[in-house]
């Protein structure tokens, strides 16, 4: 028998309501990680912040590790899309102007996380934490 991965989702969110539940869980995970840190984050706390039952949480993920992996994955996809969009915008600019614009965007994206104790939404209503080095202590330390 093959052991179940601790970071793979149990089932995919294919319907609108289930996608909303998963989105709420991921946003709650990001908030709990930033505020309380990885060690103090628990699936019970995440479910509570998301406003869903612990049973609903476990329908989609096997545990905290899978939620953290999903938050990191979502953030990486959002960051890559922002980078693609930024590169398209500056593609025809002189190198000096393009470089300034790209550095400014990267700085602005991460600066918002260094100055807050909660993640800032980037894009269409999605919570996001800049970086994948979640602090163990909470309060946003080490996250940017």
Features:
144 residues, Tetracycline Repressor, domain 2, 5 helices, 0% strand, elongated, disordered C terminus
Structural write-up:
This protein is an all-alpha fold and 144 residues long. The protein has a domain at 16-114: Tetracycline Repressor, domain 2. Helix content is 58%, strand content 0%. The protein contains five helices and no strands. Helix 1 packs across helix 2 (43-50) and helix 4 runs antiparallel to helix 5. It is elongated, with a radius of gyration of 17 Å. The chain starts with 15 loop residues before the first helix and ends in a 30-residue tail after the last helix. Residues 116-135 and 139-144 have low confidence and may be disordered.
Q: Quick summary of this structure?
A:
This protein has about 140 residues and is mostly helical. Helix content is about 60%, strand content about 0%.
Distinct helical segment count: 5
Radius of gyration: 17 Å
CATH class of one domain: Mainly Alpha
The multimeric state of the shown protein is single chain
Instruction: Using the coordinates shown, work out and report the CATH topology of one domain.
Output: Tetracycline Repressor, domain 2
Q: What fraction of residues sit in β-strands?
A: under 5%
Low-confidence stretches: 116-135, 139-144
Based on the coordinates given, report the CATH architecture of one domain. Orthogonal Bundle
SSE topology:
Layout: H1 16-36, H2 43-50, H3 54-60, H4 64-90, H5 95-114
Helix pairs in contact: 1-2, 1-4, 4-5
């Amino acid at each position: 028998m093959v052991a179940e991965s601790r970071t793979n989702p149990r089932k995919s969110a294919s319907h609108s309501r289930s996608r909303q539940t998963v989105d709420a869980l991921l946003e709650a995970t990001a908030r709990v990680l930033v505020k309380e840190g990885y060690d103090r984050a628990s699936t019970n706390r995440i479910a509570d912040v998301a406003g869903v039952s612990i049973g609903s949480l476990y329908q989609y993920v096997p545990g905290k590790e899978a939620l953290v992996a999903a938050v990191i994955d979502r953030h990486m996809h959002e960051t890559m899309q922002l980078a693609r969009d930024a590169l398209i915008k500056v593609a025809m600019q002189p190198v000096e102007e393009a470089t300034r614009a790209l550095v400014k965007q990267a700085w602005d994206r991460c600066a918002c996380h260094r100055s807050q104790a909660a993640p800032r939404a980037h894009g269409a209503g999605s919570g996001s934490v800049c970086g994948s080095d979640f602090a163990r202590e909470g309060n946003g330390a080490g996250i940017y």
